[in-house]
Design goal:
The chain is 53% helix and 7% strand. The protein has helices at residues 2-25, 27-30, 33-45, 64-69, 72-75, 89-102, 116-119, 124-129, 136-145, 160-168, 172-182, 188-200, 229-244, 258-263, 266-282, 308-322; strands at 58-62, 79-81, 108-112, 248-252, 256-257, 287-288, 294-295.
């Protein structure tokens, strides 16, 4: 029996102890580019970059469309892009809260989430938790708050406590695929380069890079716009936080390509506008654009994201629209 136990220990030790230790300390070696984006954003929020002398007056919060489509270099020399791919206002609230704990508050927050990210949670588990991009206390606060709401299937999953700790302890069942796909170490140069790009470009990066896209985005597959109750609550929490801190807020939208906009159901457009007008009514001090934009397919690098030319045009438009300097 002792011999069997020893043999089992030899098998188990590398898998459940050494692998988690490697996963916990060498994320930049096996994670993908998206991890580098999340890591750099959180390091900046927590003040780990060591350069807080030039605090931005204008912050951008949003998802990947905002991450790609709003260029701080064009928008304002005093701006910074804190958007995250797949994020909703839930993640945005906690990002802003962490940012304010370590930085001087900005004068203005530019909030820009795709309609789909007012409708449902996308990547709370597959990116935010997976990348360790949120404190444990904030995560369990979300789980506690989720008890009050209905649209929480992708938030408060069954056995969420044990699921969370498998990520927290870097268990192999959660990270083996990334390890396998990366060959353990072969993503290091790419992730370092992406992290450096984020720092150099004040949080901005492109997603789609094609010169033209007639692809169909997620909203075009929906029959109607119906907001999520828990996301609504976190929009309120975010705007209330800004109100307490005397931060001016602009709620904007990134353009859709003409293909997707043409497919979009009339009910979707009208109900999205109603939602935004309701937000403006609840928060009269907040500047809200209730309409959707449509840009030519030539300005898109994929179905969802503006390419370099589209980013330049749209950011310049926003700069002139709100007089950012």
């Amino acid at each position: 029996i002792l011999q069997i136990i020893k043999k089992l220990a030899v098998l188990i030790l590398p898998f459940f102890i050494l692998l988690p230790l490697y996963c916990a300390h060498f994320q930049m070696y096996y994670m993908d580019d998206e991890y580098a984006m999340y890591r750099q954003q959180r390091d900046y929020c927590l003040g780990k970059n060591g350069d807080n002398g030039d605090e931005p007056e204008l912050l951008i919060l949003g998802d990947s469309r905002a991450k790609a489509g709003l260029v701080p270099e064009v928008l304002s020399p005093h701006s910074y892009n804190l958007a995250l791919g797949g994020a909703t206002p839930i993640e945005g609230y906690y990002s802003l809260k962490e940012y304010l704990a370590h930085h001087k508050k900005p004068k203005t927050l530019l909030l820009a989430y795709a309609p789909m990210h007012y409708m449902d949670v996308d990547t709370l588990w597959t990116r935010t938790v997976y990348f360790h991009n949120m404190s444990k206390s904030d995560f369990f606060e979300i789980m506690e708050n989720a008890k009050q709401y209905e649209k929480t299937d992708r938030i408060r999953m069954d056995h969420y406590v044990s699921e969370y700790y498998m990520y927290e302890l870097y268990m192999p069942n959660k990270y083996a695929t990334a390890l396998k796909n990366s060959g353990f170490v072969f993503r290091h140069q790419r992730t370092l380069a992406k992290y450096a790009e984020m720092e150099a470009n004040r949080g901005h990066t492109l997603y789609g890079t094609e010169a033209y896209s007639s692809g169909v985005n997620g909203e075009a597959h929906e029959t109607d716009f119906v907001s999520s109750d828990i996301i609504d609550a976190y929009v309120d929490k975010l705007l209330d936080l800004c109100s307490r801190e005397s931060i001016a807020v602009v709620v904007e939208q990134l353009p859709m390509n003409e293909t997707s906009y043409g497919i979009l159901q009339p009910e979707f457009k009208s109900h999205y506008k109603e939602y935004m007008l309701g937000l403006a009514e609840r928060y009269p001090e907040v500047t809200v654009n209730p309409s959707l934009y449509c840009y030519d397919n030539a300005y898109f690098g994929d179905a969802d994201h503006l390419n370099a030319a589209g980013c330049e045009v749209f950011t310049q438009y926003i700069k002139e629209k709100y007089g950012y300097r």
